[in-house]
């Protein structure tokens, strides 16, 4: 299966870096991740790591971290970010073809990358392959049911059905946790730049017009699936 393009970071990496810095400024997502998929002293794979923005956060306490990124131009960018962290490396690969050995990983993390509902079954299977028994696949995605960001998403992606996505993950036996976050920008020009790479011009303009100040709320969903650690009797 060909790699699904990620136009925002592929085409506007500098603006996407600005977006990453603005996201979840209170650290709510990482706090929730630490509860459902503690990575301290464990081996982590970050799938679709992009420019490696989240790799240092894992690398501070993990035993090892491997960033897996399909888009070749982003790999050296991510590698420069973790040059001082010997326990972190970046490799080229995809969610469906992860260049790691069977049972070599404790936490597989993917944030707003590849795992968007039906069709991602090969990636789930590949994550299960590299996980050790008891390891966890944790998928962080945007909750399109929440105002205001989710509303902007639904306007722009008319075919996207958040209820069907949630049903898909529930049927695949994932647990779901919702996390409310705050995005904070240094100024309104920065906010406008980010909105323009995430939405159509019409929606971006409407979003900016309806948002006072330099921040807005965004809700995430954290889907987790743990690999069985022992014999399961049915």
TrEMBL record:
<dbReference type="InterPro" id="IPR051052">
    <property type="entry name" value="Diverse_substrate_MTase"/>
</dbReference>
<comment type="similarity">
    <text>Belongs to the methyltransferase superfamily.</text>
</comment>
<keyword id="KW-0489">Methyltransferase</keyword>
<dbReference type="GO" id="GO:0008757">
    <property type="term" value="F:S-adenosylmethionine-dependent methyltransferase activity"/>
</dbReference>
<dbReference type="Pfam" id="PF08241">
    <property type="entry name" value="Methyltransf_11"/>
</dbReference>
<dbReference type="InterPro" id="IPR029063">
    <property type="entry name" value="SAM-dependent_MTases_sf"/>
</dbReference>
<dbReference type="GO" id="GO:0032259">
    <property type="term" value="P:methylation"/>
</dbReference>
<protein>
    <submittedName>
        <fullName>Class I SAM-dependent methyltransferase</fullName>
    </submittedName>
</protein>
<feature type="domain" description="Methyltransferase type 11">
    <location>
        <begin position="46"/>
        <end position="139"/>
    </location>
</feature>
<keyword id="KW-0808">Transferase</keyword>
<dbReference type="InterPro" id="IPR013216">
    <property type="entry name" value="Methyltransf_11"/>
</dbReference>
């Amino acid at each position: 299966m060909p790699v699904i393009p990620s136009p925002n970071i592929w085409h506007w990496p500098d603006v996407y870096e600005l977006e990453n810095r603005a996201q979840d400024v209170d650290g709510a997502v990482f706090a929730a991740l630490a509860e459902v998929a503690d990575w301290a002293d464990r081996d982590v794979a970050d799938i679709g790591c992009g420019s490696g923005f989240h790799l240092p956060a894992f690398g501070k306490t993990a035993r090892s971290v491997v960033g897996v990124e399909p888009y070749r131009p982003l790999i050296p960018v991510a590698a420069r970010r973790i040059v001082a962290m010997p326990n972190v490396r970046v490799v080229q690969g995809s969610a469906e073809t992860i260049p790691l050995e069977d049972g070599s990983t404790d936490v597989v993390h993917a944030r707003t990358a590849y795992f968007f509902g039906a069709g991602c079954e090969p990636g789930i299977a590949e994550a299960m392959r590299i996980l050790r028994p008891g390891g966890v696949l944790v998928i962080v995605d945007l909750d399109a049911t929440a105002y205001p960001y989710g509303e902007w998403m639904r306007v722009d992606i008319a075919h996207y059905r958040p209820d069907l996505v949630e049903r898909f993950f529930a049927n695949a036996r994932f647990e779901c946790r919702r996390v409310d976050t705050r995005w904070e920008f240094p100024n309104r020009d920065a906010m406008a730049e980010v909105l323009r790479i995430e939405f159509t011009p019409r929606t971006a303009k409407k979003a900016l017009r309806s948002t006072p100040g330099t921040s807005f709320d965004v809700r995430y969903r954290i889907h987790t699936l743990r690999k069985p650690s022992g014999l399961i009797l049915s």
